[in-house]
Write a structure and sequence with these properties.
351 residues; mainly beta; Immunoglobulin-like; 2 domains; 20 strands; globular
């Protein structure tokens, strides 16, 4: 079953504490304290180590210049907790987070990090503390995704909540991932944390939503992001899982949308490998879940191809996502763009 009381908390961060390996080697957290318009501080309990005895490390992504269509909707929220379960905001195209379907970050830019080890820039505390310090010093607004607890004044599960192995499979679901989004005066930043043992691909549902794909022998973040984990190497996993990427898109052609004589919306794909890839049956999906099926199209090694989308699969001029799925419905690559990027006649370049 999905995690309970899922939502987002808009607040101001004021201080934090954390447990080192010496203080708590089993279930340490970074506790981020925040204030909103209600009395008393709230607390976000952020996992900084997995409870999996075989793989206790975390998968970690940070986006220093976060541009995504959800930021406009988040900025308009009142301070406090916003429950997202069972609302229109829970699914695709709303403000809920999904590490796989939301195109929040580029998967291969993540790191596998331990909790607390000697040295600089090599554990989760080294990564989190400077970002939180800066958010507090700069009076940033924080949007904390997770599950509310403690009589409505705390939030936890601030991490990926799908693709869990069997022991934690009851928490698996889609559009219920945790995370930290930070709104500074002139830009946004984002922090996303998962567990190294979680799956890179999960079921869409409905009955098995969020469960690992495939059910046995699935690709974990540890396999995908850590070249020291066997089998195989990080580079091999990356190319095998993401042989083709989205490099450009024309989301707002000149002229009235959908009218005769107006150029179609297009998406440009690039083959990252040195072998031809058959794209027949692959799909390009927009933020509303509508898909354009690619028919009889191959792409040579190292080459690019531009796909003209049918009008029934529009790319929003108000910001959106574009996702590339292979013939078995697994995500190959995905990008997002903001309303500000959707300039009429301008081709957006990704990466």
């Amino acid at each position: 079953m999905p995690v309970e009381s899922y939502g987002v908390w808009k607040a101001k961060p004021v201080r934090y504490t954390y447990e080192t390996d010496q203080a708590d080697p089993n279930s340490p957290h970074l506790s981020l304290y925040y204030v909103d318009d209600e009395p008393a501080e709230g607390r976000a309990a952020i996992n900084i180590k997995s409870g999996d005895r075989n793989e206790s490390r975390l998968a970690y992504w940070t986006v220093p210049n976060f541009r995504h269509p959800i930021t406009e909707d988040l900025a308009s929220l009142n301070r406090g907790f916003r429950l997202l379960e069972g609302t229109s905001e829970q699914g695709r195209g709303g403000i809920a987070l999904d590490f796989i379907r939301g195109n929040l970050f580029q998967r291969n830019e993540g790191r596998i990090l331990p909790h607390d080890v000697a040295g600089d820039n090599n554990d989760i505390l080294d990564q989190l503390k400077p970002i939180v310090d800066r958010a507090i010093a700069d009076d940033a607004t924080v949007y904390i995704y997770g599950s509310s607890f403690d009589n409505g004044k705390g939030i936890h599960n601030v991490h990926m909540n799908q693709g869990n192995p069997q022991r934690w499979s009851r928490d698996n679901g889609v559009w219920q991932d945790g995370g930290l989004l930070l709104q500074f005066a002139d830009h946004w930043e984002a922090v996303f944390i998962g567990f190294a043992s979680q799956a890179v691909h999960t079921e869409d549902g409905p009955g098995d939503a969020g469960q690992p794909l495939p059910r046995t022998g699935y690709l974990t973040w540890a396999n995908f992001l850590d070249g020291d984990v066997s089998p195989p190497s990080r580079e091999q996993d990356d190319l095998s899982d993401t042989p083709v990427i989205i490099t450009k898109a024309l989301v707002n052609p000149r002229g009235p949308d959908g009218q005769p004589g107006v150029d179609p919306e297009t998406v440009t794909l690039k083959n990252r490998t040195d072998a031809e890839v058959n794209l027949s049956g692959w799909k390009l999906r927009n933020k509303n879940g509508e898909s354009h099926v690619i028919l009889a199209q191959g792409i040579a090694g190292g080459a690019s191809v531009t796909i003209a989308l049918v009008p029934q699969v529009p790319l929003s001029n108000k910001g959106g996502t574009i996702t590339l799925l292979n013939g078995t419905e697994l995500k190959v690559h995905g990008v997002s763009y903001s309303k500000e990027q959707a300039v009429e006649g301008l081709v957006i370049t990704f990466g």
